[in-house]
UniProtKB/TrEMBL annotation:
Keyword flag Mitochondrion: no
Pfam families for this protein: Methyltransf_25
Organism: Pandoraea morbifera
Name recorded for this polypeptide: SAM-dependent methyltransferase
Biological processes annotated in GO: methylation
InterPro entries found in the cross-reference section: Methyltransf_25, SAM-dependent_MTases_sf
One Gene Ontology MF term: methyltransferase activity
Keywords: Methyltransferase, S-adenosyl-L-methionine, Transferase
Transmembrane intervals: none
The Methyltransferase domain, residue ranges: 55-144
Keyword Disulfide bond attributed: no
Length: 284
């Protein structure tokens, strides 16, 4: 992997957070399946006009969306996933090998890595583009890898207020935890692309054309049996809990799990994922 400007993100995703996403990838892939399906549909429209081509999946994680794209596009298309996380890329490669899919996975920082020039007809991302410390540089770098007229389709979270499910754990845990990190608007992280006008400027300044941000919403579900693990291992609460003694940790987790009650429906935990659909084109 080339040297990364995104030191904090590299440390996060090559450490505990990356390992947790590997451990919980079945539950997380199921939870975000509607988002992957959305991107697969967008890719199918691009593929209708091209008999073959290349796709880059940015922030591909453990490869769920990447493999879904490969399934839909078939052998005439080369699909590549890139992610900064070594454990997640290792899991993605293992999944591809098990499925006997000729999908390439690259462990690299998409902001700084020297990607192949003018190779990709389509660049996609499922919640993977909000983490760059210099998003203009990152999208400019992605543009260098895109062929003339190539399409960009990415999904990013809208605001925390529009995604209450995503902040249940930290709101419930905050009174019992010291030094819970505050979310800084526009900072690299889950809600880093909440401001649509800012994101439009980022893409435009990076050189992309026909930039459009459209609000989209997805009905997502997590198995109730996976809720306790989800609530206690992922996100800022998951990191904060590692600093507590066992009895304190269990007390906080009980409180957090109870706070998800409004989202429980039978054997599932259901919520709406409010996202932006970022679409753009490389100059012709």
């Amino acid at each position: 992997m080339t040297a990364s400007a995104n030191h904090d993100q590299a440390e996060l995703w090559n450490g505990r957070s990356g390992s947790v996403w590997v451990d919980e990838r079945v539950a997380l892939d199921r939870m975000f399946a509607p988002l992957a399906s959305f991107l697969v549909e967008k890719a199918s429209h691009v593929a209708k006009g091209l008999p073959s081509g290349c796709v880059l999946d940015v922030g591909c994680g453990t490869g769920g969306t990447t493999l879904a794209l490969a399934d839909m596009l078939g052998e005439r298309w080369q699909v590549t996933g890139v992610d900064i996380s070594a454990p997640m890329i290792a899991e993605a490669r293992s999944r591809a090998a098990h499925a006997r899919k000729s999908v390439a996975f690259l462990r690299a920082d998409a902001q700084t890595h020297a990607l192949p020039g003018a190779q990709f007809d389509l660049v996609v991302s499922r919640l993977g583009v909000m983490f760059f410390d210099d998003p203009v540089a990152a999208f400019a770098n992605l543009l260098t890898s895109a062929r003339r007229g190539a399409s960009l389709h990415a999904l990013a979270w809208r605001s925390p207020a529009e995604n209450p499910f995503m902040t249940v754990a930290e709101r419930a845990a905050a009174p019992m935890l010291d030094a819970m990190p505050a979310r800084v608007p526009g900072a690299p992280g889950q809600f880093g692309f909440a401001d649509a006008a800012r994101v439009e400027r980022i893409l435009g300044d990076a050189g992309w054309r026909d930039v459009v941000l459209s609000p989209v919403q997805f009905d997502c579900a997590l198995a109730l049996a996976d809720l306790r693990t989800y609530a206690s291992r992922l996100g800022p609460v998951g990191l904060a809990l590692t600093r507590l003694a066992t009895h304190e940790r269990e007390r906080v987790i009980d409180k957090v799990v109870d706070a998800f009650a409004p989202f429980v429906s039978g054997n599932d935990v259901r919520f709406a994922a409010a996202c932006w659909h970022l679409s753009a084109r490389a100059p012709a």
